[in-house]
Design brief:
Layout (H helix, E strand, L loop, with lengths): L3 E2 L9 E7 H10 L1 E5 L7 H8 L8 E6 L5 H7 L5 E7 H9 L8 E6 L1 E3 L1 H13 L6 H6 L3 E3 L7 E7 L9 E5 L2 H4 L2 E4 L5 H15 L4 E4 L7 H8 L13
Length: about 240
């Protein structure tokens, strides 16, 4: 059984990203655990209500990432107060970090790309899944969490999923042990944070986490040097026309 759903072989070593509050970053390094939540806690009510009718969500947990390297929408949604950071990893590293702690259990780890469907396509997907009785298969259960409406396609989402986890987690969340210095290979600071504040936050992150990788401030709103020079070039004075009466 493949751990990769809706993903090509080339995708497995691609970078994926997750924007989280700075407090969550410190928790990740302090506790050395990553947390997956029950899908019923996700925000899209259509997704939860429709797919919840298929089967009880017992033993299914997930975590959402994105393929976006730079997205104004993602920063504004997940870092509304400019206090978030973006962590980066690779798909293979993320799913392997979950797979190792599951050895000796019935639980299975998956990582998959979300498909964005019209409402009709989404209902057809659910109907087909139920009518063919595919949901005894953990990978098919996981696939039900890899469809969303077209309104969410800006997210370009990838989801880390855990199935058959009834015996190792509570109903709301599950935390598994991992090494954050192996999982995270880059930290990006919110682009709306002033440079001097970003510099101070960078030093604080180093001190609090011991992270040795690159910690950058996103340049999403920074002009490239060529345009910056143009913007700061002294504007020529416009001589008023000679007026004759």
């Amino acid at each position: 059984m493949s751990n990769y759903l809706n993903l090509s072989r080339r995708d497995r070593d691609r970078h994926i990203y997750r924007i989280i509050p700075i407090t969550r970053l410190y928790e990740l390094f302090d506790t050395r655990t990553n947390v997956l939540v029950n899908p019923q806690k996700w925000e899209d009510p259509f997704e939860n209500v429709l797919l919840h009718t298929i089967f009880p969500r017992v033993g299914l947990f997930g975590q959402c990432w994105t393929r976006h390297t730079a997205s104004d929408a993602m920063w504004r949604i997940y870092s509304p107060n400019s206090c978030g950071v973006r962590i980066r990893t690779r798909l293979r590293v993320l799913v392997n970090s979950l797979g190792r702690p599951l050895r000796g259990t019935r639980a299975l780890a998956f990582i998959g790309g979300v498909k964005y469907l019209s409402q009709k396509e989404l209902i057809r997907f659910v109907t087909h899944s139920v009518s063919n009785d595919k949901l005894q298969d953990p990978s098919q259960q996981a696939r039900t969490l890899l469809v969303k409406r077209l309104a969410f396609r800006h997210e370009r989402e990838v989801r880390l999923l855990l199935a058959n986890a009834q015996d190792i987690g509570d109903q709301d969340r599950i935390a598994y042990a991992m090494n954050p210095k192996e999982l995270v290979d880059q930290i990006m600071i919110d682009p709306r944070l002033a440079k001097e504040h970003a510099d101070r936050l960078r030093e604080e992150i180093r001190r609090r986490t011991g992270f040795k990788g690159s910690i950058l401030r996103s340049l999403l709103y920074t002009l490239p040097p060529e345009l910056s020079r143009l913007a700061h070039r002294e504007k020529p004075r416009i001589q008023p026309p000679n007026e004759k009466y």
